[in-house]
Amino acid sequence: MTNTHQHNDTAEQERQQQYILRCGEYVRKFRLRRGRAPLALVKTFGCQMNERDSEKLRGILSAAGYELTDREDADLVVYNTCTVRENANLKVYGRLGYLGGLKKKNPDMHIVLCGCMMQEETVVEKIRSSYSFVDLIFGTHNIWKFAQLLCEMYEKGGMTVDIWKDTDQVVEDLPAQRTYSFKSGVNIMYGCNNFCTYCIVPYVRGRERSRAPKDILREIERLCDDGVVEVMLLGQNVNSYGKTLDVPVSFAQLLQEVEKIDGLQRIRFMTSHPKDLSEDLIRVMSESKKICPHLHLPLQSGSSRLLKRMNRHYTKESYLDLCSRLRQQVPGLSLTTDIIVGFPGETEEDFQETMDVVRRVRYDSAFTFIYSKRTGTPAASYPDQVPEEIVHDRFDRLLALVQEIGREQAMRLEGETRTVLAEHVNEQDPSLVTGRLANNMVVHFPADPSVIGTILPVRLDECKGFYYLGTPCIESQVDFG
Length: 481
Ligand code: SAH
Ligand code: SF4
Ligand code: F3S
What we know:
Blueprint: H1 3-34, E1 39-44, H2 48-64, E2 67-68, E3 76-81, H3 86-105, E4 110-115, H4 121-130, E5 136-138, H5 146-156, E6 160-162, E7 183-187, E8 189-190, H6 201-205, E9 209-210, H7 213-225, E10 230-234, H8 251-259, E11 266-270, H9 279-287, E12 294-296, H10 304-309, H11 316-329, E13 334-341, H12 348-361, E14 365-370, H13 388-410, E15 417-425, E16 432-437, E17 442-446, E18 455-463, E19 467-472
Parallel strand pairs: 1-2, 1-3, 3-4, 4-5, 5-6, 7-10, 10-11, 12-13, 13-14, 17-19
Antiparallel strand pairs: 8-9, 15-16, 15-18, 16-17, 18-19
The structure holds S-adenosyl-L-homocysteine, iron/sulfur cluster and FE3-S4 cluster.
């Protein structure tokens, strides 16, 4: 980022603060008329980046005086959408029909759509023609303009639409309302340059932009001053962080700086592209006291032939080699992954290569997806799409294997004591608190809700498949990790 940019960004941030005040005027008028604050719902579809964006939208709404709610019959409903697979889109259209009905009953209701799906022209056309009751549509590049767009929506009436094709702008320091007081996502970069042939993300999130290290570190320091003990550094490919900065910085170097922040106890990151995972990163992970021994390393396919067609830039062999180096140097590491079944041209042989990698790497868990054709991506026009019955059969076999291995892997800590970040009271049994191990597994244990937000040692008494039942230990030697 250049200095001129930074100057502009500060000016932009101040401008947006003015719009938040102007929204506050609308809230005040609503209060006078209705005797209560307007209720606002922000519902997220999709990945952690969208979750984090939603926290920013909530931050703006709450600064303007809205009362946040989980109810869909709110006065302002914001859907932050995802379009990575067709299902994600179908869910949104399904919910929209229902929202239209609610709006007829509440003339004050406003409906806002934003996020990845809105970056697709065909989607916006469809909403204009079939869901004309929607009040505001914006995309992924201008979410920091939310307050300004809300003002336009209230002042103009009709449907307000503002979609940018791409941007090189990063606006810092807008308010965010965190879902948890003790942990937070932190964007370190936006966009993606990889263009995997099945994937729509680079088209809807734009080109890769890294935030300046000092902005990231300052944000984390402030979060820690405010009680955060765990951060998740977010980017579509964190391993290529910093390459395009004026003064290039590697992801491994950034992690070393984050490690030094007082009060911070756990560092996670997502997602790591195998092609860019450096030896330096493995070393930094192995030496760190704060980086969690968990790596999400999407495989997508175990067939080198398909990986090439997917434009992933690694092979089955190089992926396996990477995993064994990681396992050697980072003791107790949990590996998790994403796998796509039924990519165009996938044969039974290719599929068996995927099953083979799953058996060899022994993932703690894996997200398995059926290939979904995304308009505009190269793979959508490949002629050899795999028939649905074959894909479903493969999907079922893969899922069974992934679950069997996941259960076996989970058992390995039974009887041991590990540190747990206590996150919330158990929904089924209020005498239990639910937390997470550094390797991301869930643990339920009897404790007072006052422990929530702290990290404490817990003996992992019994493994129940994908979670543990445990007992907190007051004074004991704990092996960190
Ligand atoms: N940037 C991350 C992935 C983000 S999308 C990475 O490169 O690993 C999350 C996951 O969705 C991907 O890992 C992939 O497994 C899946 N996915 C993406 N596009 C898909 C498609 N068209 N069909 C099915 N799954 C897809
Ligand atoms: Fe999609 Fe590939 Fe970018 Fe991940 S790296 S977001 S799968 S294009
Ligand atoms: Fe979906 Fe956008 Fe994330 S398409 S997976 S919400 S980057």
